Amino acid sequence: MRPAVVVTGISGNLGRTLAKLLHKHERIIGIDRRPFVGRPKDIEMHQLDLRKRKAEEVFRKNDIRAVIHMGIMHDPRMSEEEHHSFNVVGTTRLLEYCARYRVPKVVVLSSANVYGPSPDNSNFLTEDAPLMAASRFSGVRDLIEVDMLAHGFFWRHPHIQTVILRPVHIVGPTIKNAPSTYLRLRHPWIMAGFDPMVQLIHVEDAARAMMEAALRPEPRGVYNVVGPGEVPLSSIHRELGHAAIPVPHPVARPLLGLLFKYRLANFPPPELDHIQFLCNVDGSRWLQDVDWKPRYSMRETIRSVVGD
User: Could you give the CA distance from residue 152 to residue 222 in angstroms, rounded to a whole number?
Assistant: First the structure.
């Protein structure tokens, strides 16, 4: 059979979007604990946990030309221990398999959120900027550790083409992450006196970026992946017809903490930093190395949150 591309986390909304684009060109093997709803028949699916020994069988029995790792859990209500075990131990095992079975190309999906929104941020952060998100939001610690594991793997295995992608906020009609959920609120909170510039990327553009990273030989190392630009948060709310509620930031955090504790809100208080401070990244290296251009305009990207 043809060499395969292994995709972890394939059953999530982003994973399914990637799979439906990629299977037209490549033989795909999916790994996920969850079932793949609507799986194309030509995709080989393994419903298992990366931490289990059975995951190694996928690598032992197949000729694998690339791995795209998206199998990262993001659940603010899950215990830190389970998060750490699934994300960090799972990634460690996966990278061990890639080295042991000489996989030529490894793509790890990180996030621009690893830099962390902060009042001290410069306008556009490059790939060399420190990963400071955990200093204000411990929930991002695992994502930073996964990013650093991939970075260490890059240096230890120079014969393997390793790519770490840090996309800006991914949004789309099927995406259920914090940015998309926030932008679907009819009366979202905004921090009184703050209107940060925000960067978004459409889910299909994010999937295309992973395809480019996996299938082309040129990309290596760390890349910030940007969408069609940046726009003030207030402009996004106007485009979506929202009646935003200004909340003084000293009141917002304790109030959101109570709402989150009693399951009246889906966002932990540290998420408020994203609607108060800057966390914009410089994607010029990615643009130059792969001649990247997103297909979706800013208006289309914003409107995709509500399915338009």
Answer: 11
For residues 198 and 168, what is the distance between their CA atoms, to the nearest angstrom? 9
Question: What Cα–Cα distance (Å) separates residue 295 from each residue in 67, 207, 220?
Answer: 24, 11, 23
pLDDT (tens digit per residue) in 128-172: 999 998 877 777 888 999 999 999 999 999 999 999 999 999 999
Rounded Cα distance between 191 and 261, Å, is 20
Question: Which residues face 189 on adjacent strands?
Answer: 245
The CA distance from 232 to 51, in Å, is: 41
pLDDT, tens digit, 9 for 90 and up, residues 221-239: 999 999 999 999 999 999 9
Phi, psi of 179 (to 5 degrees): -60, -45
Its sign, for the CA torsion 112, 121, 234, 266, is: positive
Q: How far apart are CA 110 and CA 72, in angstroms?
A: 9
Q: Which residues contact 95 (CB under 8 A, 6 or more apart)?
A: 106, 149, 150, 153
Q: Does domain 4-306 have CATH number 3.90.25.10?
A: no
Whether the predicted pLDDT of 308 surpasses 60 = no
Query: How open is the CA angle 140-143-148, to the nearest 5 degrees?
Result: 125
Domain spans, the chain:
4-306
In one-letter notation, the amino acid at residue 244 is: A
Q: How far apart (Å, rounded) are the C-alpha atoms in residues 56 and 276?
A: 43
Cα–Cα distance, 107 to 127 (Å, whole number) = 16
- Nearest Cα residue to 143 out of 131, 152, 154: 131
* Residue 223 backbone dihedrals phi, psi, to 5 degrees: -135, 130
Structure tokens at 238: 């106007």
Beta bridge partners of 201: 170
Name the DSSP letter for residue 94. H
What is the CB neighbour count within 10 angstroms for residue 22? 24
Q: For residues 115 and 279, what is the distance between their CA atoms, to the nearest angstrom?
A: 7
- Looking at residue 76, its pLDDT comes to 64
Q: 218 and 290 in contact (C-beta within 8 Å)?
A: yes
